[in-house]
Fold:
Amino acid sequence: MGWWQVNADTLARGRFVVSPLAEATASLLTLERATAAHPGERAWLDAHLAAYRVRRAEDPLVPQLIQAAAARHWIPEFITIAPTGDGTPEFADELAEVRGMSDAAAAAELARVMSGSPYASHVTTPGLQQRAADLLDWVWTHTVATSWPRRRGIIEADIVARTTKLGQGGWAAALADMRPGLRWLGEGRLQINAYGNPPRKISGAELFFVPVTPQAGWVAWDEPRRYAVMYPCSGTLIYPGSRACAPETLAALLGPARAAILALLDTPKSTTQLVTLTGQGLGSVGRHLKILWDAGLLHRRRAGRSVLYYRSEAGDLLVSVQNDGIRS
Structure:
């Protein structure tokens, strides 16, 4: 397995951060994969895949290198960086760091990954790094930027949920179900994946966990200073036309609109997200949230300028009982 040896100080300073560049990279990987993990992602692909394929045909080398590297379980360093963790990053600032990587550095990393590949001879192509940055810029501008506020809300909700788990059960709880192959092994060992990679010591570095809304996950680093784990957040990107539903028995008990909201709040969500997910009006969502809150079925927590709602233990039990009734 691939794992990192993390000392106590590095782990204590580990934190969850937002990265627009990671979101663009995950979106690029999804466009290359061209398969959807859920209906919201399918709707997003339907909206953007044709235009991406036109863009891809104009300069196919970078996408081909990405596919070849991904087939070897590696995301090329020339399209991803470890975030700095400084404040609220802008995509342009993170992209500038990608553009600052030299062709020689990109080629050295690619040569190691592409050894024996049909694309090995292309790793020293002049201007490759800038072409990779241009592709990321296109993906951000044409497929991500307009939905970034909604995506960011989903990401921030995931961070709240993970931070809550961290406070309640430590890193083992916070990392549980983050992505396949990732788990806390104890004794300073963080398993990154199930591949046969040698252990890597990251003591004294900054350690970041970076949620993205597409179903993609990978690692990045700027040795020896920063290491990052990108993972798919628990909330999913919802596109118009996708609507939430709840068990019929729960809908009969609470009413369909209120039941749909309670069913959605297995992870923290804002009022704006609930409006998008349910198709209900802002006022209606607010009234239903108050009733559920007064009944003790919800908790709430502030994240930046948003208030996030999520089910309480009583809310979880109520939904679980209804789901169990359906299965029986």
